[in-house]
Amino acid sequence: xxxxxxxxxxxxxxxxxxxxxxxxxxxxxxxxxxxxxxxxxxxxxxxxxxxxxxxxxxxxxxxxxxxxxxxxxxxxxxxxxxxxxxxxxxxxxxxxxxxxxxxxxxxxxxxxxxxxxxxxxxxxxxxxxxxxxxxxxxxxxxxxxxxxxxxxxxxxxxxxxxxxxxxxxxxxxxxxxxxxxxxxxxxxxxxxxxxxxxxxxxxxxxxxxxxxxxxxxxxxxxxxxxxxxxxxxxxxxxxxx
Length: 241
Known about the structure:
- The structure is a single chain.
- 34% of the residues lie in helices and 22% in strands.
- It is an alpha/beta fold and 241 residues long.
- It has an 8-stranded mixed β-sheet.
């Protein structure tokens, strides 16, 4: 039995997959995205982390099944949920056995075992940090190989994808960048939806509390309406394919 390390659990969420969902935020992440709003999820250790077995967690989640309806279910997020491979390999089959729709909100940067995880995953919310190697390293401080390995597995297994991309002024914005992103997404299959997420500063206070310098100090949040035309265009391309 593997204990999952849980940062928090949100019930009755409406934005992390289809329908009404419970979102389980798992602890741990190797990426250091410049715009990360949850630096408190980076470490695998800490006094506020809850440890729970997969069986106990799914029993707790299944109590909300009447609220999920036909489309809702459970989303495992983070941090980077794929870092807790063994826990997901236990929890996801139990979710499916309980009749719960399963979703992963991930950047694809785990430690392998992806086939066993995706075999019990109904949907992946894939956070594409950047579509070039140089841009990916600039955003995350890491190389993209692991995320590409996960994506290749998801494509081979025909897992439905919702693509997410955080748009940051001066970093991942502008028509040239978004056109390149659109072209890249068009090379992928099984993409059901594209979500452009405007940069916000809701997590900046956490950096001060953790005494970590905030990389984007002074960058103003982006207004969502500035992305509406691009998001409509990208989703129209999905419908045409």
